[in-house]
Amino acid sequence: MVRLPWVLLGCTLPVVNSNVISALGAVLSHGEVRGQLARLNATVGGRLYTAIPWELPCFSEYNGESVTPDEDACAAIQANYTSPFERTQHFGTYMISQWSTCQAKRPAGECLLNVSNPEDPAAFTGVDCELGDIPSYYIDVQCPTDVQAAIAFSKLTGIRLSVKNKGHDYKGRSGGKGTLALWVANLNSISHDELFVPEGCTTSYDALTIGPGANTEDIFEYVDSINRTFIGGYHQTIGAGGGYFLGGGHSVLSPVYGLAADRVVQVKVVTPEGLYLVANECQNSDLFFSLRGGGGSAFGVVFESTHRLEPQVTLQVASIGFTGHSNTSNLAQWYSLLVNETYKWGTEGWGGHITGPALIYVTPLLSNAEANASMQATADFALAQGGTAVVEEMPSYLAFFSKYVPTAEVAVGTEITLGTRLISSELFNTTDGRAVIAKTIENVLSFTSPYVVVGTPFLYDYTPGSTSVTPAWYDSLWHLGLHGSWAWNSTAEYIADQYTAISQHIQTFRDITPGSGAYFNEGDVYEPDHTDAYWGSNYAKLLSVKQKYDPDGVFDCWQFGWKGASDPLYECFIPLPQS
Length: 579
Ligand SMILES: Cc1cc2nc3c(=O)[nH]c(=O)nc-3n(C[C@H](O)[C@H](O)[C@H](O)COP(=O)(O)OP(=O)(O)OC[C@H]3O[C@@H](n4cnc5c(N)ncnc54)[C@H](O)[C@@H]3O)c2cc1C
Ligand SMILES: *[C@@H]1O[C@H](CO)[C@@H](O)[C@H](O)[C@H]1NC(C)=O
Ligand SMILES: *[C@@H]1O[C@H](CO)[C@@H](O)[C@H](O)[C@H]1NC(C)=O
Ligand SMILES: *[C@@H]1O[C@H](CO)[C@@H](O)[C@H](O)[C@H]1NC(C)=O
Ligand SMILES: *[C@@H]1O[C@H](CO)[C@@H](O)[C@H](O)[C@H]1NC(C)=O
Ligand SMILES: *[C@@H]1O[C@H](CO)[C@@H](O)[C@H](O)[C@H]1NC(C)=O
Ligand SMILES: *[C@@H]1O[C@H](CO)[C@@H](O)[C@H](O)[C@H]1NC(C)=O
Ligand SMILES: *[C@@H]1O[C@H](CO)[C@@H](O)[C@H](O)[C@H]1NC(C)=O
Ligand SMILES: *[C@@H]1O[C@H](CO)[C@@H](O)[C@H](O)[C@H]1NC(C)=O
Ligand SMILES: *[C@@H]1O[C@H](CO)[C@@H](O)[C@H](O)[C@H]1NC(C)=O
What we know:
Elements: H1 20-28, H2 33-43, E1 48-50, E2 61-62, E3 65-66, H3 71-79, H4 84-88, E4 137-140, H5 144-157, E5 161-164, E6 180-183, E7 190-196, E8 205-210, H6 216-225, E9 228-229, H7 240-247, H8 254-257, H9 260-263, E10 264-270, E11 276-280, H10 285-291, E12 301-308, E13 310-311, E14 315-321, H11 328-347, E15 351-355, E16 358-363, H12 368-384, E17 388-394, H13 397-408, E18 415-424, H14 425-428, H15 431-444, E19 451-454, E20 476-486, H16 492-512, H17 530-535, H18 539-549
Helix pairs in contact: 1-5, 2-5, 10-18, 11-12, 11-15, 15-16
The protein binds flavin-adenine dinucleotide and 2-acetamido-2-deoxy-beta-D-glucopyranose (NAG) (9 copies).
Protein name: FAD-binding domain-containing protein
Family: Belongs to the oxygen-dependent FAD-linked oxidoreductase family.
Keywords: Oxidoreductase, Signal
């Protein structure tokens, strides 16, 4: 087995890739679970913690027992309840709040504040705070040996493992009732090498190496300071080097520069068998393929990943919209116009987001005059509705991001479900196809307005078979989504109805795009035929690689390489039909 040099500061145990699990198992094996936990804690340098819900200081009852609220701590949480930065600092919370709760037990099994008004005392007065789907224990991971010790511990005790990074997941894949979690958010290094050569290869890349916990916004700021562009997501705190690229990773620049999974050139990972491996095109290439879209923690715990950079780019930005869309025929016309323009916009490199009656798009391929002409009809439409239209040139991606994204990004702290579909390019390319899309949108408007991400790698020169996301990504122009939500005091029945309603409405988009798919990171929790939707023709290979690297099923992931929804690991998920 390959031995890797020790690279992370403060890690004193040598990384050995042979028999490590049985060796650590022998160290941990004496006594009952409590004694084993203490030994595990010693092995990981005292970085093992008991998890508690972030909101606990507001409550006077925890798991049925009286506790003393801490008013100052509670006030600080209330003041920052919807701050994504604050949420990433605490293990016991998620961006999408239902994933810290035991949804199957609702209205019990939660410890949430009222996200619309965090000071609302009804949410925490006389309410029992419960750990919900938050793992029982977590290790603040710093060293590959931490993961090796956790795997050994899991094998000895039967206690299951989970992996949490920045907690952005829409499917609860970074939680798990009763699990021991590996919290990787503090692995947040960022470094640049303009002549990066993947180990064992000869080609060099201008590339950025990041820990999973590096904030997307910090990465954008860093690369701007070195006059480069990183192709990243539409939110400040996504873990670009974690779940984001592992599931695919779209950006408003993806139409030109590809998905995050297209751009990664090397990954260092502790596999489910406890081996610390380098995966790239030249070694462990099957693992590399799987880490480029297989999703979540199925193939182990990523310590660092290296991503190609682009030079600094000048962007054209279009921000166009109107308000007062109670007139849905108005809104239907707007979407019809956007559908009509989409294929042309695709060829011009535009990417962006459509949120009901507003869009924010960017392209690196046009001049300002060309961008104005391209957006003319859309600007005219919005202005005729009393709206606004700006088409401006920005000197860098960071300038665009700082001005537009923090106020436009998806809010956190809410409980929401998504249903999404990749809408095939060829449908936008014919009059009939466009009419079908526009009609399907019109029909759904009385229920909700689609949230459209224009972030597919439409112009990107992709090498077939290089990534494991569904190939449908490369033949689509839109990643279209419908959202449903509910409140902290909702019942399991009500929540189930929201999942079902979203699933039924997105079905109309599945029906018009046979053979297409959906984005694993941002899909229906109960996606029918999910293996085909998320991985398509890549699924068979992906599953065989999973069996090779994780024969014992150490890392279970909802919908991939799993034991199924009836696994006790998923006891907090509401049991709903899926395939
Ligand atoms: C507000 C918001 C905005 C978003 N915007 C975008 C966007 O613009 N583009 C886009 O593509 N997606 C976007 N997403 C989706 C996002 O990419 C996924 O939620 C992604 O899974 C987040 O990864 P994370 O590591 O931050 O989250 P986590 O919830 O911590 O982890 C997500 C999954 O990845 C696994 N994982 C994380 N780190 C590691 C690691 N180091 N090793 C092994 N497994 C790991 C976890 O086990 C889990 O399965 C957004 C999500 C939210 C909530
Ligand atoms: C692990 O050890 C540290 C340092 O001794 C201690 O603070 C922490 O509470 C221990 N964790 C657990 C779960 O006991
Ligand atoms: C909210 O968070 C910010 C930084 O994340 C911090 O500076 C501020 O003190 C917090 N507010 C309160 C009331 O704790
Ligand atoms: C939460 O707060 C909002 C805003 O004050 C209020 O309208 C709502 O009734 C509260 N409760 C619930 C369950 O949403
Ligand atoms: C930044 O990069 C751009 C594009 O490569 C280049 O034209 C410009 O000269 C660079 N600026 C500096 C200050 O290096
Ligand atoms: C709604 O918008 C459509 C299209 O712009 C317009 O023809 C119609 O008159 C509007 N209806 C109302 C009630 O404003
Ligand atoms: C979109 O194109 C179709 C077919 O060419 C046309 O009937 C429809 O009016 C167009 N939509 C808008 C809003 O212009
Ligand atoms: C493009 O439109 C903007 C208004 O949105 C205007 O300020 C700018 O001058 C136009 N650019 C060109 C090249 O005409
Ligand atoms: C769209 O139509 C053009 C012209 O007929 C054709 O060249 C192109 O291949 C089509 N694209 C797709 C994705 O169908
Ligand atoms: C939740 O709280 C709101 C506001 O107090 C109330 O109107 C609603 O009936 C409650 N829902 C349930 C299921 O109790």
